[in-house]
Design goal:
The protein contains 5 helices and no strands. It is an all-alpha fold. It has one domain: Helix Hairpins (Orthogonal Bundle). The longest helix is centred in the C-terminal third of the chain and has 39 residues. The radius of gyration is 20 Å and the shape is extended. 11% of the residues are buried. The model has no long low-confidence stretch (mean pLDDT 93). Its cofactor is Mg(2+). InterPro entries: DAGK (IPR000829), DAGK_sf (IPR036945), UDPK (IPR033717). GO terms for molecular function: ATP binding; kinase activity; metal ion binding.
Length: 133
């Protein structure tokens, strides 16, 4: 029996803890190897510093953190789709391209809505600050 299949059939706390290790390995790989994830991390860091500087409310913080976590999750899933398609075929295939394009489109759509939400969160305190100057 294949080792991965044996592991899936096991139950218990050790297996549960091991799954965190696998998740951390995946996260580390995406951060180290995916340029778009590195860009998302940089933008998130700048955004978080700006929110801190503007003294965001608790509600605004919760919304902002959910949007950032969603963006990271979308990029991770996009990478998983790309790797899976690459594993299936090295040759060009229109359906492989379509799968990758659709996964990238999901990230793009989320990014557009994240930007709109960002404007809704940041514009009021920025305008208030501007009026005070």
């Amino acid at each position: 029996m294949n080792m991965a299949l044996q592991d899936r059939q096991k139950r218990g706390f050790k297996r549960f803890l091991r799954s965190f290790g696998y998740a951390c390995q995946g996260l580390k790989h995406v951060i180290q190897n995916e340029q778009n994830m590195q860009i998302h991390l940089f933008v998130a860091a700048v955004t978080l510093m700006a929110a801190w500087t503007l003294s965001f409310s608790l509600t605004s913080w919760m919304i902002l953190l959910l949007v950032i976590a969603g963006m990271f999750s979308m990029e991770i899933m996009n990478t998983a789709v790309e790797r899976t398609v690459d594993m299936i075929t090295d040759d060009y295939h229109p359906l492989a391209k379509r799968a990758k394009d659709i996964a990238a489109a999901a990230v793009f759509v989320y990014c557009l809505f994240a930007a709109i939400i960002g404007l809704m969160l940041f514009l009021p305190p920025l305008l208030e600050l501007w009026v005070l100057l």
